């Protein structure tokens, strides 16, 4: 059975975050696993494969030979990379040629001096930013080459450095395996070549699915060629208790996978020694409308079946007898030969490393629909922090709009750094809507039907945020109202946190003080406050939640909320004395993932949403994750990763440990004395040498010419070395991909 997932997409749907992973694009086929980088930060996953060619590799200059060939060695075989590119929706590879008197494609009419070699050893005469059959560079396509007579900047043959670069995105030609540079045989000709890694996005195979609507519907494909080895894997989702997944017949030989009952999957075949059946029994029903994975393998030695993470069932083949599976009929997916077919969804069906295109075939088959719905039942739990799972034709996405978070799984903090004197106000109603309208819409969570708009007051709030600061006292957050009611979260002069409620009915505001814990220590702290009527629950960082109660005389309605402030309170009318004192100079530090009921004021300020009109900012808001370390999931524990080099076995002296106090104090003192003596001798020597050379007139140095006028040492080197500016310039641009 496969130890690795088939693609980055599969790791993403196990809830993994961006990292290096081993993937095995053809299951247990001949390709074997390869290590790639999976970038999960966007809706579609990027898979990246690296090579060993340095950026800005210099070619020519001194060598008289005609052609210079650069070879790229990847961290994977060409076949492995092909498996990734063919299943991807889009691939790209950056390529750049910097030239000084070195022509590139010899446009407009000539034979190219330089070309690159792609998949299947084919030569290609187009460059980054252009496409197959178009002998032009990006500037030729965009019509902005330095010399409009040519279609590449380099073809103008200037004595100054020029550059042609862009993305190669015709995935059938990727990856670049060689770059052959030709125009280098004249004196003064120089060139530098850069090639980025191969990056592919999306995985057509992972979501390739079909829904079987009736128990007599099926898809048929050409005969399965699995004489000596068969490796079949797929996902299924159903609410039916039985049905045939797939079957292929021969004269007497056959191979078949079926759901025998709500808890049993069966793999049966006959290679001429009589039928063999392997059954996996699941402790829980498999017809729960969740995705389940099936992996069946058969070779001359044994056969095995695995369902999800349940134990593998293995059957050894007989020592004598037939070993070849001889099949003639078509391969049926779904109902075969009058049997009760599978009802539900089959996805990502791979037979011996090849994904069958269920989707295409389903488009022209009655009773079968392309694609699947209901991915959220299986993957919805990955949408964190209140993010909503949204069904898509091929997969799902997380809608984070009602949360204070961002990213594909709503786990990326949205935060900002506040400088002294900065503040943010979020008005609960936007100009032009009536107060009634507004509060009922934004503050009263839709999940709470018993609160109706007319009373315009809250008897429950949920507030959560995280902050870090080194300055106290300060106001972190304040909610004002059209009445004297308010709520505030403060850091007092000793650095302790205070939650203050004033809902009326009491002489003084009600305070919750968290003493003996300095919160102004520069570390990120998390605050969660929930109030329901008189009961308040506060959770701070990872400490257990503590409960408090408003005094018996206190009102429990927060009347007519008006605005929420971060960093400072700028409000008309009477303001609490302490808050007035804490208000200057204002909060300095970081605030992130601020959420008050359904409102995320910081996110509304930093991400253009329909709530942005409610926000007013004084000062420059700089986005920051506030030192919140995102939770990363290691790709594989060292114990289970067969490719893991045991780092512990390499002996590192003082492996990160401090050297103890055992060092003798006397030796430290002696060391100090020796250092002083050496220093004195050196000073004397310097003085003597200067004295001896005092009369020797001028002395020569290798200082760069133009150093006098340059403002710094770096500038002097740049004035002197024309290549230097280019190098800086290049390195800046090169990785903006």
From TrEMBL:
Chain ranges of the EGF-like domain: 373-411
Membrane found in the keyword field: yes
One Gene Ontology cellular component: membrane
Keyword tags: Cell adhesion, Disulfide bond, EGF-like domain, Glycoprotein, Membrane, Repeat, Signal, Transmembrane, Transmembrane helix
Transmembrane segments: 668-689
Top-level taxon: Eukaryota
Domain Fibrinogen C-terminal intervals: 1-51
Protein's membrane topology: Single-pass type I membrane protein
Family: Belongs to the neurexin family.
Disulfide linkage: 345-372
Protein name: CNTP2 protein
Encoding gene per record: Cntnap2_1
Pfam families linked to this entry: Laminin_G_2
Segments forming domain Laminin G: 208-372, 440-626
Subcellular location field: Membrane
Source organism phylogeny: Eukaryota, Metazoa, Chordata, Craniata, Vertebrata
GO BP terms in the entry: cell adhesion
């Amino acid at each position: 059975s496969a130890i690795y997932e088939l693609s980055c997409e599969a790791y993403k749907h196990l809830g993994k975050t961006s990292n290096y992973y081993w993937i095995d694009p053809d299951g247990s086929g001949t390709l074997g696993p390869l290590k790639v980088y999976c970038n999960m930060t966007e809706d579609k996953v990027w898979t990246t494969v690296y090579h060993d060619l340095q950026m800005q590799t210099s070619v020519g200059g001194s060598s008289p030979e005609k052609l210079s060939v650069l070879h790229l060695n990847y961290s994977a075989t060409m076949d492995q990379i092909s498996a990734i590119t063919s299943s991807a929706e889009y691939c790209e590879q950056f390529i750049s040629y910097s030239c000084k008197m070195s022509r590139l494609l010899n446009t407009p009419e000539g034979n190219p001096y330089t070309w690159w070699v792609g998949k299947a050893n084919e030569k290609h005469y187009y460059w980054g930013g252009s496409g197959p059959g178009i002998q032009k560079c990006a500037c030729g396509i965009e019509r902005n080459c330095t010399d409009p007579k040519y279609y590449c900047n380099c073809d103008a043959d200037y004595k100054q450095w020029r550059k042609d670069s862009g993305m190669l995105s015709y995935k059938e030609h990727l990856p670049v395996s060689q770059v052959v540079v030709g125009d280098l045989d004249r004196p003064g000709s120089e060139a530098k070549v850069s090639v980025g890694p191969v990056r592919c996005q999306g995985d057509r195979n992972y979501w390739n699915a079909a829904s079987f609507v009736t128990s007599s519907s099926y898809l048929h494909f050409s005969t399965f060629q699995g004489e000596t080895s068969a490796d079949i894997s797929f996902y299924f989702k159903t609410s039916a208790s039985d049905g045939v997944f797939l079957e292929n017949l021969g004269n007497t030989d056959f191979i078949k996978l079926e759901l025998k009952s709500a808890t049993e999957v069966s793999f049966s075949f006959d290679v001429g020694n009589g039928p063999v059946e392997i059954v996996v029994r699941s402790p829980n029903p498999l017809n729960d409308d969740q995705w389940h994975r099936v992996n069946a393998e058969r070779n001359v030695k044994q056969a095995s079946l695995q369902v999800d993470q349940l134990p593998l069932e293995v059957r050894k083949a007989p020592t004598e007898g037939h070993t070849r599976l001889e099949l003639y009929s078509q391969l049926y997916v779904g109902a075969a030969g009058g049997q009760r077919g599978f009802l539900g969804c089959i996805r990502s069906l791979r037979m011996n490393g090849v994904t069958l295109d269920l989707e295409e075939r389903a488009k022209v088959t009655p009773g079968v629909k392309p694609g699947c719905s209901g991915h959220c039942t299986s993957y919805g739990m990955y949408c964190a922090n209140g993010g909503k799972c949204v069904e898509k034709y091929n997969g799902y996405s997380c809608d984070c709009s009602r949360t204070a978070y961002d990213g594909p799984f709503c786990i990326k903090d949205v935060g900002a750094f506040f400088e002294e004197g900065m503040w943010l106000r979020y008005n609960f109603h936007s100009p032009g809507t009536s107060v009634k309208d507004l509060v009922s819409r934004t503050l009263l969570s839709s999940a709470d039907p018993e609160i109706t708009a007319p009373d315009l007051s809250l008897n429950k709030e949920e507030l959560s945020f995280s902050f870090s600061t080194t300055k106290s006292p300060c106001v972190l957050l304040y909610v004002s109202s059209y009445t004297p009611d308010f709520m505030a979260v403060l850091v007092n002069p000793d650095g302790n946190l205070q939650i203050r409620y004033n809902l009326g009915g009491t002489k003084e505001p009600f305070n919750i003080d968290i003493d003996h814990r300095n919160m102004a220590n520069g570390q990120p702290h998390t605050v969660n406050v929930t109030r329901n009527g008189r009961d308040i629950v506060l959770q701070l960082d990872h400490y257990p939640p503590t409960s408090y109660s408003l005094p018996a005389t206190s009102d429990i309605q927060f009347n007519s909320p008006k605005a929420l402030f971060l960093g400072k309170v700028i409000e008309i009318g009477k303001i609490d004395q302490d808050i007035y004192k804490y208000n200057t100079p204002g909060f300095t530090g970081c605030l992130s993932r601020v959420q008050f009921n359904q409102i995320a004021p910081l996110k509304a300020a930093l991400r253009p949403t329909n709530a942005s009109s409610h926000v007013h900012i004084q000062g420059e808001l700089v986005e920051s994750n506030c030192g919140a370390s995102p939770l990363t999931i290691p790709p594989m524990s060292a114990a289970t990763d067969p490719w893991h080099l045991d780092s512990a076995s390499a002996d590192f002296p003082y492996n990160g440990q401090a050297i103890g106090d055992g060092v003798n104090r006397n030796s430290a003192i002696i060391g100090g004395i020796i250092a002083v003596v050496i220093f004195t001798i050196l000073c004397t020597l310097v003085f003597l040498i200067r004295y001896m050379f005092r009369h020797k007139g001028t002395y020569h140095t290798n200082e760069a010419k133009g150093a006098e006028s340059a403002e710094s040492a770096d500038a002097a080197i740049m004035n002197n070395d024309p290549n230097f500016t280019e190098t800086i310039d290049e390195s800046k641009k090169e990785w903006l991909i």
